[in-house]
Amino acid sequence: LDPLLQALDRMEAIVEDTLTLARQGDTISETESVSLTNLVGKCWATVDTDDATIEIIDEMTFQADPDRLRHVFENLFRNAVEHGGSDVTVRVGCHNELGIYVEDNGPGIPVEKRDEVLKPGHTSAQGGTGFGLTIVKRIVEAHGWELSVADGTDGGARFEFEMSEQGELV
To answer: What are the φ and ψ backbone dihedral angles of 129, each rounded to 5 degrees?
Structure first.
């Protein structure tokens, strides 16, 4: 019975991710002022993070669609815990006046795989749908921002969003 329940959970996750992906492709026209600290706190609270730690390095307010942005942070947090282990540390901050980063101290993403991980259907996790980072990319681009993947400070993965308008560091 367990394999059947696992298959059902996986199908449900694929359907949910597919629907999210279909909804996220449009350009975002309505934005509001978003506090990075508040958004990150809400997203972290909804993800099963085990013994992982979140560190918010900088506070910033910026214009965005907070509902769509929740999908971005929740997906990145889930990936960090899934690939970095239950005790991973995730840091969120500003990498310059026009950008936000999310990084972890997990194993990182090899340079030759960085473009590949953003493509639909790519997964290295058992039971993964392969849509999480595709959803992240589409939402970031729908905001008119650019997404890049780099090495984290401690060797893990780092995702940077380059905004089209300057946020306000607080």
So the answer is: -90, -20
What is the domain partition of the chain in residue ranges? 2-169
Evaluated on CA atoms 26, 150, 34, 130, the torsion sign reads positive
Q: Which fold has domain 2-169?
A: Heat Shock Protein 90 (3.30.565)
pLDDT band (50, 70, 90) for residue 119: low
Predicted TM-score (pTM) of the model is 0.79
Here the tokens at position 25 are 């492709």
Task: Provide φ and ψ at 73, rounded to 5°.
Answer: -65, -40
Q: How far is CA 117 from CA 68, 97, 124, 125, 130, in A?
A: 20, 27, 9, 12, 8
Question: Six-digit token pair at 73?
Answer: 């942070």
Dist. CA 122–CA 104, nearest whole Å: 20
Helix 66-84 to helix 132-142 angle (10° resolution) is: 150
- pLDDT value of residue 168: 52
CA dist 14 to 17, 19, 84, 140, Å?
5, 9, 22, 21
